[in-house]
Design goal:
355 residues; alpha+beta; 11 helices; disordered N terminus
């Protein structure tokens, strides 16, 4: 009888971690059905393997034996065979004594026991998976200059249009407009937005335009919404036929300040552009809290500023360059301009000197 056994439980076809491939298959695959757990005993003597060869479920070689089942099942099979041999041939029968050490070790394994002289490793089959996906690494790590996350302005424009609709619901006079996102630094004067009357044509109806500059989208959501309210004040002035700006729309007068205050903005006077700077009142932010929340979700990209080169040439004659809000440009003598206002027939605004 021998005791130099080293039982090991293995799963056929299961790879050790060190042998696992670095990446999964490049396309979805279907794994085979869950394999049965097997019990493998090593370091056996010829007497051990000869005795085990007579038991159903065991496959033996010279010094190893594999049972197609768990250690508990293997123990029951060996014990049942030993009981049969003992009942028919006695406890000293060769087929009985050769299996005592095997049975005892399997009994220890099946009950969670161990032996200091034996190293035991248990590997169980994993549950079957219907498919496996391709592992290609971190999405952020894959981004390059030529391979970026997809982005469209659809969500952004939709959020801006929703915000404009919310403003209109609180101020019925404000008209429907076409909201666009574009450059705010393409001209000499940088801007966060603009309002232009009758810029779009929809069937028989002329629609105003509200532009929100892509460069300004880098700002906090409260400031972006303030720009929308700023342009809404211009829209309100257009509907009420109030002249709220001059100098090509750069100078904002006190009439604009009053309209902006009506929409929930506070204005301050700037020596260059008048009452144009606006801030959002706390109560106004509370009123539009849900709108600000949704708009903030859409502010995930912004535009880089453009570099506008070149300097304007000085005029050597008495004619002055003037422009309206379209903007269309004309040149007119200073004396003629001083005689009275020149009105644009398209946008109905006054031509102002392009200073």
């Amino acid at each position: 009888m021998t005791t130099d056994l080293a039982p090991v439980v293995q799963v056929p076809g299961q790879l050790d971690l060190i042998d696992m491939p670095a990446t999964l298959a490049p396309s979805p695959v279907t794994m085979a059905a869950r394999p049965a757990t097997t019990t493998k005993l090593t370091g056996l003597t010829n007497h051990n393997t000869t005795a085990l060869a007579t038991i159903t479920g065991w496959t033996v070689t010279k010094t190893t034996a594999v049972y197609n089942g768990t250690p508990t099942a293997a123990h029951k099979a060996v014990q049942a065979h030993m009981d049969t041999v003992r009942a028919t041939e006695g406890g000293r029968a060769h087929g009985y004594t050769s299996l005592i050490a095997v049975r005892n070790k399997l009994k220890e394994l099946s009950t969670g026991g161990s032996h200091p002289a034996v190293s035991v490793t248990i590997k169980r089959a994993k549950k079957a998976t219907t498919s496996q996906t391709t592992r290609t690494g971190s999405p952020r790590a894959r981004l390059t200059r030529k391979r970026q996350d997809e982005y469209t302005t659809a969500e952004l424009v939709s959020a801006l249009e929703t915000a404009w609709t919310a403003i209109r619901s609180n101020h019925q006079e404000i008209p429907a407009v076409v909201v666009i996102v574009g450059s705010g630094t393409a001209s000499k004067q940088a801007k966060y937005g603009h309002f232009a009357a009758a810029r779009w044509q929809h069937g028989e109806h002329a629609l105003a335009e509200v532009l929100i500059s892509g460069e300004g989208l880098k700002r906090p959501v409260e400031q972006v919404f303030t720009t929308l309210l700023h342009e809404a004040a211009h829209a309100l002035a257009n509907v009420r036929e109030i002249k709220d700006t001059s100098r090509q729309g750069r100078w904002h007068n006190q009439k604009f300040a009053a309209l902006a205050g009506e929409l929930g903005l506070d204005t301050t006077k700037d020596p260059r552009i008048g009452w144009s700077p606006c801030t959002l009142r706390r109560e106004t932010a509370t009123t539009y809290k849900s709108v600000l929340t949704e708009l903030k979700k859409a502010l995930i990209a912004y535009r880089h500023p453009e570099m506008v080169a070149g300097t304007s040439k000085k005029n050597n004659n008495n004619a002055m360059a003037c422009a309206c809000q379209c903007p269309r440009r004309i040149r007119v003598a200073k004396a003629v301009l001083e005689e009275g206002e020149i009105t644009c027939g398209v946008c109905e605004s006054t031509f102002e000197p392009d200073e």
